[in-house]
């Protein structure tokens, strides 16, 4: 029964969805489910790199801090995603903090054991490479945004990125699936909270974004893209 329960949870992770029952068995024996309350840490920047995590439910914020304590948000991850993406086949430490935003149920797998499964499963290895490739493209796009675009355009591009990674479609709007503060948005692109607040006010006046009754951002993706690409 426990094996069946774990197998069902592994199947919710896109990376594992197409694996056979036999292939899933090799993961069941090394997987552990852990539940984290909001504002608790899964790991902290600099901790020994020991496990890879898959989100069964909930939201996890990945961010780095410098010596002065300044925060740089790398990503806000939700159901089906894995973290960290760095560290496979390497020894070292976690490159960032992982803090739970909304209560999360995570599947934890020791990295050494996961590497053994990868080496025995070419299909799973190729799927992981595709995920890594998507992350590299995302990082390249973020770097390009910082180099080629002003702050207003960077904020627009950030909102468009969030519609792809953290939103569901509702009519003409994309509704963000997690609460994001103006400070957190600012920390994603390295600008001031006040700058983000002014830009969001401009976008609201133009009818490009809105906020629903629960405080979630609504984004008109098609109209917002015209701010940058037309």
From TrEMBL:
Cell membrane in keyword set: no
All copies of domain HTH crp-type, residue ranges: 149-222
Pfam families (UniProt xref): cNMP_binding, HTH_Crp_2
One cellular component term from this protein's GO annotations in UniProt: cytosol
Domain Cyclic nucleotide-binding, chain residue ranges per copy: 15-135
Cross-referenced SMART domains: cNMP, HTH_CRP
PROSITE patterns in the record: CNMP_BINDING_3 (PS50042), HTH_CRP_1 (PS00042), HTH_CRP_2 (PS51063)
CDD domains reported in the protein's UniProt record: CAP_ED, HTH_CRP
GO MF annotations, alphabetized: DNA binding; DNA-binding transcription factor activity; kinase activity
Keywords: Activator, DNA-binding, Kinase, Transcription, Transcription regulation, Transferase
Stored SUPFAM superfamilies: cAMP-binding domain-like (SSF51206), Winged helix' DNA-binding domain (SSF46785)
PANTHER family in UniProt: CRP FAMILY TRANSCRIPTIONAL REGULATORY PROTEIN, HTH-TYPE TRANSCRIPTIONAL REGULATOR ARCR
Stated name of the protein: cAMP-binding domains, catabolite gene activator and regulatory subunit of cAMP-dependent protein kinase
Organism annotation: Geobacillus thermodenitrificans (strain NG80-2)
């Amino acid at each position: 029964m426990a094996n069946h329960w774990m197998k069902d949870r592994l199947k919710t992770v896109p990376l594992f969805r197409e694996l056979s029952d036999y292939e899933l068995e090799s993961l069941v024996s090394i997987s552990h489910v852990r539940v984290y309350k909001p504002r608790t840490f899964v790991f902290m920047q600099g901790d020994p790199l020991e496990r890879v995590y898959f989100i069964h439910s909930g939201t996890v914020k990945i961010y780095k801090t410098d010596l002065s304590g300044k925060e740089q948000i790398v990503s806000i991850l939700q159901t089906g995603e894995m973290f960290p993406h760095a560290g496979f086949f390497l020894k070292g430490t976690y490159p960032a903090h992982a803090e739970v935003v909304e209560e999360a149920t995570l599947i934890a797998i020791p990295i050494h054991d996961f590497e053994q499964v990868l080496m025995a499963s070419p299909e799973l290895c190729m799927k992981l490479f595709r995920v890594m490739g998507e992350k590299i493209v995302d990082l390249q796009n973020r770097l390009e945004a910082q180099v080629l675009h002003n702050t207003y355009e960077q904020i627009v591009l950030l909102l468009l990125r969030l519609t792809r990674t953290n939103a569901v479609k509702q009519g003409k709007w994309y509704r963000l699936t997690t609460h994001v503060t103006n400070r957190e948005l600012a920390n994603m692109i390295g600008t001031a909270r006040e700058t983000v607040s002014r830009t969001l006010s401009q976008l609201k006046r133009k009818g490009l974004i809105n906020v629903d009754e629960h405080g979630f951002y609504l984004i008109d993706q098609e109209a917002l893209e015209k701010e940058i690409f037309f």
